[in-house]
Design the sequence.
């Protein structure tokens, strides 16, 4: 789910599905993706330019606010699970089996970079122009302090799959994962606490 302003938003999903709203989510209309691959992530650089990533190495790009989507060659065959824009030209994609892609021409071409891991990479975010985080399977936490040129593996005291994370404020990052795993990090990306809990659904 991604909104580019108060009214216009997108949902991506199975079988190449894209839905768009122009009224803040009150109604949704189907948009053609041109693919049957499952779609996993969507992000917009600005109001016009956006990208979708998905299974089978799928990358789609729009330059007209999501009216049309065109395929971009990724050089990968796995699931591409997240895309982030470090600046107007430098983009990163993370995916299954340690796939890490970088573009330096605003997403027109992509190069695969080795991070020396085959663990699944699920999310990537930058805190600023230098500091970034990648999370993934097996408690994987990779950090960069040089804008993504190099990445270091950080011990997280868990082997749970990390699913997502958010920057709470300028000094704290919260990572969540399977089996109720929650881990907090300071601004310097050093683990400060790990909490696990169990939950059940009550009808």
Sequence:
């Amino acid at each position: 789910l991604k909104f580019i302003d108060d009214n216009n938003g997108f949902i991506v999903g199975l079988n190449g599905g894209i839905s768009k709203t122009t009224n803040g989510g009150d109604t949704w209309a189907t948009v053609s993706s041109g693919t049957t691959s499952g779609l996993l992530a969507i992000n917009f650089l600005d109001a016009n330019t956006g990208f979708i990533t998905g299974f089978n190495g799928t990358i789609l790009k729009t330059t007209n606010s999501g009216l049309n989507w065109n395929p971009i060659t990724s050089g990968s065959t796995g699931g591409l699970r997240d895309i982030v824009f470090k600046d107007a030209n430098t983009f990163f994609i993370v995916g299954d089996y340690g796939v890490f892609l970088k573009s330096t021409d605003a997403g027109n071409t992509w190069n695969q970079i080795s991070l020396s891991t085959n663990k699944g990479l699920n999310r990537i975010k930058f805190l600023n122009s230098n500091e970034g985080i990648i999370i993934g399977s097996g408690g994987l936490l990779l950090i960069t302090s040089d804008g993504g040129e190099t990445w270091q593996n950080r011990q997280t005291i868990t082997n749970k799959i990390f699913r997502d994370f958010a920057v709470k404020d300028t000094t704290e990052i919260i990572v969540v994962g399977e089996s109720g795993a929650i881990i907090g990090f300071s601004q310097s990306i050093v683990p400060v606490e790990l909490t696990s809990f169990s939950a059940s659904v009550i009808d």
Observations:
- The longest strand covers residues 39-44.
